[in-house]
From TrEMBL:
Residue span, DUF1508 domain: 23-62
Phylogenetic classification of the source organism: Bacteria, Pseudomonadati, Pseudomonadota, Alphaproteobacteria, Hyphomicrobiales
Gene3D superfamilies, sorted: YegP-like
Source domain of life: Bacteria
Protein name: DUF1508 domain-containing protein
One Pfam family from the record: DUF1508
Length: 84
């Protein structure tokens, strides 16, 4: 059960391509509306944005790594850049 003080995800739409279309984005906010995190990109489909939120939730449930695996981070960045 969520507490009203728990951070929550907000989904919203922004203009993209010079206002020709919209993109779905998310932000994670706390109870004071302080932005804790933002989506790294926008998605044209709401479902894709929801999948991104689900991925962040899964990652947040995992262990905290103090010294990141730089090679893994580079691979993730490459995959993100290669996406259409």
């Amino acid at each position: 059960m969520s507490n009203s003080d728990d951070p929550l995800f907000e989904m919203f739409q922004t203009e993209a391509g010079g206002g020709i279309r919209t993109e779905w984005r998310w932000r994670l906010i706390d109870s004071d509306k302080t932005i804790l995190a933002v989506s790294p990109q926008g998605w044209f489909r709401k479902e894709d944005c929801e999948q991104s939120i689900a991925a962040v939730k899964r990652a947040a449930a995992g262990p905290i790594q103090e010294e990141p695996d730089v090679a893994r981070m580079d691979r993730l960045l490459d995959e993100t850049i290669d996406e259409p």
